[in-house]
Amino acid sequence: MLSIRPAAPADRAAVEEICVATGDDGRDAADRYDDPTLLAHLWATPHLLADPALGTIVEDHNGPAGYLVATADTVAFERWCAQHWWPALRQRYPLQAERRDTDRELVRLLHASEVTPASLTDRYPAHLHINLLPRLQGTGLGRLLIERLVAQLRQRGVGGVHLGVSPTNTRAIGFYELLGFARVAVEDDGGVIMARAL
């Protein structure tokens, strides 16, 4: 039995657990990091808190098993993070502390807080992150969650949405292409930016 419901800030712990459990191209990333919650600090929790109305939770008989979090306005979201999200995390995770390489890279990103270029946000102002536990992957729920978000964004008058995906996650890239996303850029670290006009 599955249920799909709006997300709320109270879902934070569940979203963070799912983010870690899917953080290695859809597989569990916990063993790759000393502090795997860094993944959620970067790519899940701030979205849930900044714009919970665009978040969706999927639950099955074992509880929350997937989520989609998003923002309709990436520029405004990045300003929100700069004011309300990054400062406390930067104090908690100082750059100079000793860490394994994988954690160090995430902490570097946390301190860098890159700004999405206007060449992307002008055409595709929204962005999303979606993760489903392995037991729900390949069931059609990912498509359902994204189309639900697309409808919400259209109601807000948003003209496009983008996302980032690991270049090694070929399954996800193929999935997004089937949903009308196209590759529009490659990041310095090789990450693929995909976008869809609405």
Automatic annotation (TrEMBL):
Domain N-acetyltransferase, chain residue ranges per copy: 64-198
GO molecular function: acyltransferase activity, transferring groups other than amino-acyl groups
Pfam families: Acetyltransf_1
Coiled-coil annotated spans: none
GO cellular component: ribosome
Source organism of this protein record: Microcella frigidaquae
Key words, A-Z: Ribonucleoprotein, Ribosomal protein
Protein name: Ribosomal protein S18 acetylase RimI-like enzyme
Domain of life: Bacteria
Family annotation (PANTHER family): O-GLCNACASE, PROTEIN O-GLCNACASE
